[in-house]
Amino acid sequence: MTLSNQTISEVTDLFKALSDPGRLKIIYALSDSEMSVTELAESLDIEQSSLSHQLKILKNVRLVSVRREGRKRLYSLADEHVYTLLTQVISHANEKR
Amino acid sequence: MTLSNQTISEVTDLFKALSDPGRLKIIYALSDSEMSVTELAESLDIEQSSLSHQLKILKNVRLVSVRREGRKRLYSLADEHVYTLLTQVISHANEKR
DNA sequence: TGAACATATGAAGATATATTCATGTAAAGT
DNA sequence: ACTTTACATGAATATATCTTCATATGTTCA
């Protein structure tokens, strides 16, 4: 495994995107089904503006993707990779006794 | 998969620990072999104090572990889980075209 | 076209995080 | 006991990040 500077910054950006409780909840919510921004905001009880900012971060690192439907934007997980990763880390966290 | 508040904070702490270039380099260096603080500091060209602070963060989330040998502290990865996780995320990052 | 709805974005303030500096602690050798 | 070596830690400053507020953009519908 080689770590170029580019790889390092991509990987840290990815981890950084995952290192916020709000964004983790977003990802968890999206693991069930795609949702619009408004639906997410209501479901997570978070401000729309804040949510949009966070979604942008998740999108930048390709953790989520969007499609348009009328005036709505439907967000979903970019791939199952994301979910797999998350469950792994959760089990690692739970290994603490 | 259920996300209790405790799980969320443990997982975000773990991701947070991984979301720094310096700490990523530390983990990468330790994937070869255990190293003392001085060895790490020289190898990564980083200040000893800064390194100690970062090692503490990594230790808090159980990514690395330590054993003492004389006046040295030998740090190593806590388990291969860590390395597996890292390689997965690297390949995810590299999926960008 | 104008109004309402859905989402994005820039700026500002609050908070968190990282690095450095100075110093503390602990083990080993003399 | 004193000095040196190895590492840890607290405080301070610098930087990054998050949230909120205000506003902009884009879409639909009357």
TrEMBL record, chains A, B:
SUPFAM superfamilies: Winged helix' DNA-binding domain
Transmembrane regions: none
Any Pfam family: HTH_5
Keywords from the UniProt entry: DNA-binding, Transcription, Transcription regulation
Start and end residues of each HTH arsR-type domain: 3-97
One function term, GO molecular function aspect: DNA binding
Listed name of the protein: Transcriptional regulator, ArsR family
Keyword Ion transport belongs to the record: no
Cited PANTHER family: ARSENICAL RESISTANCE OPERON REPRESSOR ARSR-RELATED (PTHR43132), HTH-TYPE TRANSCRIPTIONAL REPRESSOR CZRA (PTHR43132:SF6)
Species name: Alkalibacterium pelagium
